[in-house]
Write a structure and sequence with these properties.
Blueprint (H helix, E strand, L loop, with lengths): L5 H19 L1 H14 L3 E6 L20 H6 L4 E7 L7 H24 L4 E3 L3 H9 L3 E8 L10 H7 L2 E5 L27 H13 L2 E3 L5 H10 L5 E5 L13 H9 L3 E4 L3 H4 L6 H11 L19 H11 L6 H15 L4 E3 L19 H9 L4 H21 L4
Parallel strand pairs: 1-2, 2-4, 3-4, 4-5, 5-6, 7-8, 8-9
Helix pairs in contact: 1-2, 2-14, 13-14
Length: 408
């Protein structure tokens, strides 16, 4: 569907949905939306896998993962991409070895999740296998990878990862590495590569050859455009949002959205609070004052260093830090999905939560609340076919296209 016809059709559909709610009543409307949610294949394209001993803030209030099996079943979530993500550290043999060990542990943890629940969960190695596993009544897990820092300067490391089951891969996380610049570089680092380094450009070609879907969520705009120029296959942003609605370095501009569409790719929207609503103009000053009050460096960003505080200071700091920002909800979240659908088409937008890494908003705090997103989409006039595209169809389409680009 073209961009020019989308707004008019959406307005008509939304008006029809609103009338249906009035005529049928809220309970009937919710029931209808929930039935749609159960019928479509629902896929979350980015969830961190947790290791024992991880930061307690990475776990839900019950002490468990935001994506553990009972929550997936309660929310009717059929598939997810577990990301093997590591922190960026010094470019030394010791730093690379530590990151490699962390990545290997997370790969093993993903396999253990499936091994511990053989009747309920299976690892998929392709888009078709996702559909087959879901058709068997199981949750399908795809393995993702984020941050080539753990590879040092070895492009061939992607071959090993692909053999180990990785089917989605992003070059950076927070902090630049030898392959590419991050949208959130280390203090003072800036754009040292101007987007992709020669290693990063070689990695794009290698990932295409391997049939691995490239994730551009954490790159700088220059890096995004370079990947789009070089890649033979569509790409995905597994957990991003619209920069026009919230001017955050992790979000995508209209120009980036348009370019992703032109390549046939898809943008998976994350319910990460700070990416969904713009900060007040005085936010930097209030953050600096808060950090000073707790003895933290006021020139650093976010909650850096907060984990080093002793309790109860640490808990109090994080409560105060969260209160600095406006709080998003499901409507705010779907505003970003809706904006992207209107801008580049419903066939280019999807859902990637970033649960277990700080994501979660009012009404969509973990996988068990996934139906709330479908209810809001239906209330806005999205058809069942469109809901199916957003919840998994679009992602599986680009994954399959990336697979087809592989070289024997």
């Amino acid at each position: 569907m073209t961009q020019s016809t989308r707004p008019a059709r959406r307005t008509l559909l939304a008006a029809g949905a609103a009338l249906a709610v009035v005529m049928a009543g809220p309970a009937a409307a919710q029931s209808a939306a929930d039935a749609i949610h159960q019928r479509v294949l629902t896929l979350d394209s980015h969830v961190d896998v947790l290791l024992p001993g991880a930061n307690p803030r990475s776990f839900a209030a019950d002490g468990k993962s935001f994506s553990e099996l009972s929550k997936l079943r309660a929310g009717g979530v059929d598939a997810l991409v577990y990301a093997v993500a590591v922190s960026t550290g010094p470019r030394t043999p010791e730093g690379y070895a530590a990151a490699r060990a962390e990545a290997d542990a997370k790969l093993a943890a993903i396999r253990k999740i499936a091994a511990d629940h053989p009747s309920d969960i299976a690892i998929a190695l392709s888009a078709d296998e996702v559909r087959q596993i879901v058709g068997q009544g199981k949750v399908a897990i795809l393995i993702g990878f984020l941050n080539a820092y753990s590879l040092g300067d070895d492009v061939a490391g992607f071959d090993r990862l692909q053999r180990q089951g990785v089917r989605v891969a992003g070059l950076t996380h927070a902090g630049n590495n030898a392959f590419a610049d991050s949208s959130r570089p280390q203090a003072g680092a800036g754009e040292e590569h101007g987007g992709l380094s020669p290693l990063g450009k070689a990695a794009v070609a290698r990932l295409n050859d391997l049939g691995v879907l490239i994730d551009i969520s954490q790159l700088t705009p220059k890096g995004v455009f370079q990947v789009l120029e070089l890649s033979r296959a569509p790409v995905v942003a597994t957990h991003s949002a619209a920069r026009t609605l919230a001017d955050h370095a992790r979000n995508l501009s209209d120009a980036e959205l348009d370019a992703i569409k032109a390549k046939g790719g898809v943008v998976q929207v994350t319910p990460f609070n700070s990416y969904l609503l713009p900060q007040a103009p005085d936010y930097p000053a209030r953050l600096a004052a808060l950090r000073t009050r707790y003895g933290l460096d006021p020139t650093k960003s976010g909650y850096q260093g907060g984990d080093d505080l002793g309790q109860p200071q640490r808990d109090a700091f994080f409560v105060a830090y969260k209160a600095l920002s406006p709080q998003a909800n499901v409507k705010t979240y779907v505003d970003h999905i809706d904006y992207i659908a209107r801008r580049i088409g419903v066939e280019h937008v999807g859902i990637g939560t970033d649960f277990n890494h700080g994501a979660g908003i009012e009404g969509f705090k973990d996988e068990s609340q996934a139906p709330a997103v479908t209810r809001e989409l239906v209330a806005r006039g999205y058809s069942e076919t469109e809901v199916a595209q957003i919840w998994g169809g679009n992602f599986l389409r680009v994954l399959k296209t990336a697979e087809a680009a592989a070289k024997p």
